[in-house]
Structures are given as C-alpha cells and as structure tokens.
Design a protein that fits this description.
- The complex is a heterodimer.
- Chain A is α/β, with parallel strands linked by helices.
- Chain A contains ten helices and ten strands.
- In chain A, strands 1, 2, 3, 4, 5, 6, 7, 8, 9 and 10 form a ten-stranded mixed β-sheet that branches.
- The radius of gyration of chain A is 19 Å and the shape is globular.
- In chain B, 39% of the residues lie in helices and 17% in strands.
- Chain B is built from nine helices and eight strands.
- In chain B, strand 1, helix 1 and strand 2 form a beta-alpha-beta unit.
- Classes of the chains: A alpha/beta, B alpha/beta.
- At the A-B interface, helix 5 and strand 10 of A face helix 4 and strand 8 of B.
Chain lengths: 292, 251
C-alpha cells in the first residue's frame, strides 16, 4: 500500500456469488483501483470462499465463523482495514457495482475541498438498474446555507448521513467514532454510524460524479417486502432514538418515520397477528439493554 | 425561457439608488442597458420597470462585484446546453456581508425535496432554488409576464418568498455562487410582518405535495431560534403576527 492515500475496499457478502463476482470485477476495472480488496464473508454456504480464492486471488478474505449480519460484517471489515493502516476504507455491499471512475472521483473530492473542510465521509451517487437515484440510498443533505453554497461551488453536496453502498470512510473518523454498531445486525447500522459522525461536524460530502449501481431486484424502499426482517427496522429505530446520532428535532422526524412505515407495513399485511407480533417484538427489544 | 446571446438587462432598485450601487453598476463587465427605480415597494418597482430581457432586482445597499452580472448571464447561455438542466427563469447572486460571510436575510432556500434537480444542479456548480430572497435577483421577462410583479400586500421580508415560490414552482431558478454581491445593510432577522406573511404563505398556493408542511416546519425552526436568542422579541413577533389584520386575498 502506498502511504498517504491507501484505499482498502471492504465488500460484505452473504450467499450471493454471482453478484459478488460482478462487484469484484468492477473493482478490478477501476481507473484508480483500490490498493487492497477485503471480502468479508458472513459464513456463506454457496461456495463464496472458493470463488474469491480461485477467481480473485488478489483479494483478501475475511471469513467470519457465523453470519453476523451486514452490521457485523462492516464492523469487522472496517476494523481489519483500519488495523492494516488504510487511510480510506471504501465500504460496499456485494450488490454494489461501481462504475470505472467511482473511486477516482471520490478521491478527487478532498482536493476540491481544499481550504474548506477535510472530508471524512464521501458518498457516491447510487443509482438503480435504470439509472435513476436508488430510493434505498437517497442522500440526505445538510441545509446550513453558507456551507451548502461553498460545497456546491466545489461540485459537492454536504450530507447529514449516508449508506454503506460506496462510502469512503477516513481513518480519522474511525479513530474518533469507532466502528459501526454490531448489535444492529442489519439495517440502520450505516445510518446510525454516519449520522453520529456528522451530527456536529461538516465533514461528509456527496460526490455526484462518482456513480455506483445498487443492483437490487426491484427499486423498493424497505417497507412492504421486508417480511420478518421488519423487526430490525423497528428495533434499530428505537435504538437510534436512545442513541446520540440525532438531535431532538431529528428524533421527532425519526418517530414520525417509524410510525408511518409501521402503519404501511401492517396495512400491507392486513394487520395479521404475525406482523403485529414482529412490530411488538421490535419495540420490546429496542428498549432492552444493548448487548455490549 | 429561451436564452439570447446579447440580452438587455434593466437594473431595478426598490426605491432610490445609492452612490455605491451606482458606481458598482457603472463598473459591471456586462452592460446594464437600462435603469429603473420604484416608488418604495418591490411591487411598483417591478410593475413600472421598462421592458428588458432580464430584470436585475437589487437592494439599495447592495454592491455587486464587477462580474456579478456577467457570471449570471454566462450561466443563462451555458446551463441548458447539455440538456441536464433546464434554462433558468430566475437567478440569484450570493449575497454576503462586508466581512464575507453569507448575509442571513438573503440566504437562499434550496429545493425542499427534489433531489434529482439538486444533484443535476450541483454538477453545474449551481444551487437549485425553491425560494429566493431579495438582494440580487435576475428575473426573466417571461416570468414577470406570467406571474406579474411581487404582490403589493406582502412586506419586503415576505414578498420575496411569496413571489419566488410561485415562480419557482413552475420554472427553474439557480443561485450562482461565483456571482457575489456585498450587502451593507445589517442583518435584521425575522420580523413580525414576515412571520405573518409566512403564515399566510403556508395556506397559499405556491406549493406542490408536502411542501407547505416543510415550509411551516422551517418557519417553526426559525421561530424557535428567534425564541432562543430573544424570547421577548419572539413573543412580540407572534402577537404582532396574530393581531395584524390580514388584508388582501390569499396568494
């Protein structure tokens, strides 16, 4: 790895060999390739490990003994990348297909921001298969007008939070704020982590010219097709209400969003006993003490 | 709105001009073809302005940098070329205090929810606007014809929001960060007339979808901030807004 700007791509995967292959191919095709690729395998059972060792020998494999969810995967992956001395860790899921300039454009942002801010989080423009903004990864912007205009003048937008679908994290953020919270298991781990880092600091930017495709089957938002996993949405929202990532005003919006999505979810499932149970268990576990 | 290569520009000041503004207009690198002043309100200033491709609405104490107009006009020609952004009907300069910081009374409001437009605009290094403030606005003739002058029954501190919200609901507008105007008038913040005007606007028809909820929310935030800084003034402001008899119809 080369001194100042070493980049480790951290790809978290679980039983999606074909997508992972596409994802890793896209990393190979970068105009500015990452210095190292770290595949974090959440104990896949579909031969993912063989795929990585045979087809992508340049990648390192972090083989987790059990599936600890996206949150656990990013926790362990970022920890390993940080310990290995990475200046930047480039976080993504296995269904994130980067366009060739994605990393180079992200890495150009600090230069564009010279004299203004030293960025610690840089987020790509995430599109769906048809090129439209992916609704699961829509950026959320900071609105402080002066900072906003200064950022726009440099071709960037200030963000309040981001998702782990092509996010560059500087090591100074890890040093100050630690790692994503493992006990979230899936969902909102990225929202919580980035919102916590950006709460009182203007160090996160959206880079519109860095484009990645988030290759989900449908361009869905999380609510209607989540089944039992809706539990994590409810529980982790309650976790966030107890946490320090959001200020009081933002927590009010969070409550509103939770109520709204829960109503949609329950109505979609015709208020069936099972789904009501999922929501109630989420609420109950959300107020329990957090596992350390 | 179709851009023209050598557009005529009429500089419009609300009441009368100041020597500093006169000098700044003389020094513009793009020519100001005409000048006009109103009789003390933005309504009459715009209504009586002579016809031109663009009206450049300037505050009396504004001092535009020599290239302030040129930067905006250049954008009207280049911005639509690659098809990623529609040509603007309204442009705003960046209005700063003499110390260089953004002037609070002229701080822009980016679009509330339209992320696609916001992102397309940043790729052209401009801020896509949903509302704009007085200070230095370049408004196309077509927009003035379509929407009329600013309403006479709004105060200065609310009339800009009302007028630009209506225009920008239909037509695109951007803030050009490189076009800089120094505003020497000190920041006044929120006034009771502006609070009243913004309350009226919430009920008005300048909006699409959930926007009025956002607008009301932003007013609440501004009021909360004012309350923290000066609780007494904030109470006076609310009382003033409540007691004032609304005149005219809703926008």
């Amino acid at each position: 790895m080369s001194g100042e700007s070493s980049v480790v791509a951290v790809v978290v995967t679980y039983n999606r060999k074909d997508l992972l292959r596409e994802c890793l191919d896209a990393l190979r095709a970068q105009t500015r390739p990452p210095d190292r690729v770290l595949v974090v395998d959440n104990a896949s059972t579909d031969g993912t490990r063989t795929l990585v060792t045979e087809e992508f020998p340049e990648a390192s494999l972090l083989a987790l003994p059990e599936n600890i969810g996206g949150a656990g995967g990013f926790h362990e992956g970022l920890k390993a990348a940080h310990a290995g001395g990475a200046t930047w860790s480039w976080l993504m899921d296995d269904d994130t297909i980067a366009t060739p300039w994605a990393l180079q454009r992200l890495l150009e942002a600090p230069g564009a921001l010279e004299g203004m801010a030293r960025p610690e989080l840089l987020s790509s423009r995430t599109v769906w298969r048809d090129g439209s903004l992916h609704p699961m990864n829509e950026p959320s912007f900071k609105r402080e007008p002066e900072h906003y205009i200064d950022s726009v003048e440099r071709g960037l937008l200030p963000i309040r939070m981001a998702t782990f679908v092509s996010l560059l994290v500087h090591r100074s953020a890890v040093e100050e704020f630690g790692l994503p919270l493992k006990h979230y298991f899936i969902w909102s781990d990225d929202v919580e982590y980035t919102a916590r880092i950006l709460r009182d600091r203007q160090v996160g930017f959206f880079v519109p010219d860095s484009v990645v495709e988030h290759k989900t089957k449908t361009a869905h938002t999380a609510v209607t097709e989540t089944g039992g996993r809706f539990y994590f949405h409810v529980r982790n929202s309650v976790y966030m209400l107890r946490g320090s990532a959001w200020d009081i005003r933002e927590k009010l919006s969070l409550v509103w969003a939770l109520v709204f999505t829960t109503l949609i979810y329950m109505r979609h499932n015709r208020f069936a006993r099972e789904q009501v149970g999922i929501v109630l268990r989420g609420l109950r576990d959300g107020v329990k003490p957090v596992p350390s | 709105v179709t851009p023209s290569s050598s557009p005529s520009v009429c500089a419009v000041v609300r009441s009368h001009s100041s020597p500093a503004l006169d000098a700044a207009l003389e020094a513009q690198t793009s020519s100001v073809t005409d000048r006009s002043s109103g009789a003390g309100s933005w309504h009459s200033a715009v209504a009586t302005a002579p016809s031109a491709d663009w009206l450049w609405l300037l505050e009396k104490h504004a001092e535009p940098a020599p290239d302030a107009l040129e930067r905006m006009l250049a954008l009207t020609i280049t911005i639509g070329v690659d098809g990623s952004l529609p040509a603007p009907a309204l442009l705003s300069s960046k209005v700063v205090r003499p110390d260089g910081g953004l002037h609070r009374d002229s701080a822009p409001w980016p679009p509330l929810l339209d992320r696609v437009r916001v992102i397309a605009a940043v790729r052209q290094r401009v801020v896509s606007l949903r509302l704009a403030r007085w200070g230095s606005l370049l408004v196309h003739r077509d927009a003035v014809e379509q929407f009329g002058p600013p309403r006479a029954d709004y105060s200065d501190g609310g009339g800009d929001l009302e007028w630009t919200a209506r225009i920008l609901r239909e037509l695109p507008g951007y803030l050009v960060p490189g076009s800089v105007v120094v505003q020497r008038q000190p920041e006044s913040g929120l006034t009771s007339r502006e609070v009243r005007d913004r309350m009226r606007m919430v009920r008005g028809n300048s909006w699409v979808a959930q926007e009025p909820i956002w607008f009301a929310f932003l007013l609440a935030v501004d009021l909360a901030r004012a309350a923290r800084e000066q609780p007494a003034a904030m109470l006076g402001m609310l009382a003033g807004a409540a007691l004032r008899r609304p005149h005219g119809t809703l926008p």
